[in-house]
Amino acid sequence: MTPKEETKLAETPDEQSENVKVTLTLNGNTKHIQWNKQIPLLDAMLHAGIDAPHSCCRGTCGTCVCKLEEGEVRLKRNFVLSEAHVQQGLILACVAVPISATVKINYDEF
Ligand code: FES
Q1: Are 66 and 93 contacting, i.e. CB atoms less than 8 angstroms apart?
Q2: 20 CB under 6 A from ligand 1?
Q3: Contact partners, residue 13, CB within 8 Å, separation at least 6
Q4: 99: which of 72, 89, 92, 110 fits an S-S bond (Cβ 3.0–4.6 Å)?
Q5: Is 75 a pocket residue for ligand 1 (Cβ < 6 Å)?
Q6: Which helix (H) or strand (E) holds 32?
Q7: What is the pLDDT of residues 80-105, one digit of tens each?
Q8: Cα of 16 to ligand 1 centre, how many Å?
Q9: What's the CA-to-centroid distance between 18 and ligand 1, angstroms?
């Protein structure tokens, strides 16, 4: 009698659905990173080794402001940006969570 082996097929998570493709321009350089949907945009950039500007990380100082050129995000909180700023596409990376599957942001022009 052979011992019964429990063979479990490892389910490969669909990484595409967990990540958002980010194209970002900072200090004249354009880079592409993957943004895990579970974390704020700022954290995704810092994890990817990008020296994105930040300070409070709570949506209160405005240091992380950048322009959303393509895609859609939601700000978990916002104590800085006026309605006019939001209309211009400005976002706070530290409190931004993704809605669309790709986003394009720019720190250099806004
Ligand atoms: S780091 Fe302060 S608002 Fe984002």
Answers
A1: yes
A2: no
A3: none
A4: 72
A5: no
A6: strand 29-36
A7: 999 999 999 999 999 999 999 999 99
A8: 28
A9: 24
Mean pLDDT of the chain: 90
Ligand 1 atom 3, closest CA: 59
- The helix/strand/coil state of 103 is strand
Please work out whether the CB of residue 29 comes within 6 Å of at least one atom of ligand 1: no
The pTM (predicted TM-score) of the whole model is: 0.84
Distance CA 23, CA 74 (A): 17
CA of 61 to the centre of ligand 1 (A): 5
Q: 98: Cβ below 6 Å to ligand 1?
A: no
Pair 75, 108: CB distance under 8 Å: no
| Average confidence (pLDDT) over 59-85 | 97
pLDDT for 109 equals 87
